[in-house]
Amino acid sequence: xxxxxxxxxxxxxxxxxxxxxxxxxxxxxxxxxxxxxxxxxxxxxxxxxxxxxxxxxxxxxxxxxxxxxxxxxxxxxxxxxxxxxxxxxxxxxxxxxxxxxxxxxxxxxxxxxxxxxxxxxxxxxxxxxxxxxxxxxxxxxxxxxxxxxxxxxxxxxxxxxxxxxxxxxxxxxxxxxxxxxxxxxxxxxxxxxxxxxxxxxxxxxxxxxxxxxxxxxxxxxxxxxxxxxxxxxxxxxxxxxxxxxxxxxxxxxxxxxxxxxxxxxxxxxxxxxxxxxxxxxxxxxxxxxxxxxxxxxxxxxxxxxxxxxxxxxxxxx
Length: 317
Fold this sequence. Notes:
Layout: H1 2-15, H2 39-43, H3 57-60, E1 72-79, E2 85-95, E3 98-116, E4 125-145, E5 152-165, E6 168-182, E7 188-197, E8 200-202, E9 205-207, E10 212-218, E11 222-224, E12 227-238, E13 243-254, E14 259-270, E15 280-288, E16 291-300, E17 305-315
Antiparallel strand pairs: 1-2, 1-17, 2-3, 3-4, 4-5, 5-6, 6-7, 7-10, 8-9, 10-12, 11-12, 12-13, 13-14, 14-15, 15-16, 16-17
């Protein structure tokens, strides 16, 4: 049942147009690619593209992978809309002169039992079959600092995307590329174009991947007594979807025995094209040595639902 509820809620948003004709202008596929992957990014209104410097950069700004100069791994999971499940995993491994990133995301819509009826309006009987739906993507990327150009980094990622609904499935591939720069004063700037690839054909529907342009900036870390504060901002636009601008901030305090406490918040202004996300983002985290635990929440105003995401990551010193 949860798959049907989710499809009813997000079907029109994912399609962006008439579902009845193949090749209809404005239809979209791979909506999974537009969702924030890391818990930290969600708590910062997904405005962390210039500030992120770990394994999660693979999904937001591949050039920033070059700053992840040690092995790290992260896992995030969220009970999403209508009891569906959104999960992501990412790894960063220094290789040669740069950093290799590996990651995967999955949106599981759940499953239902198939019921057949001889005529509309009549009670049906179970056929014994189970129908399910799922979106998933596997991503591999590489980020490299350019020694001859001080502070400049480049990166690229390749994505394999698959959508499955009952007996229908579609798959395709896409690429992302980005550029980043850090000034001597500590300002970070990053820009990328993501999910450039061919459309997916699912049954009679042909949908374009959500090609995304994003650019962000993060100020140097400011020390205010014991607190470390970092403001950031980002603009992004999804082809056939939402254009948005977000501002965010992260504040951290040192704790006992090397621990760290963090709070995050952000605010997003969208173009009013029907996105149901609450504009305010909230998150928190705690770090202890090589491990950190993060939390973020998001609210969907139209259906009055709040979801919660938990993430854990490990970074070798």
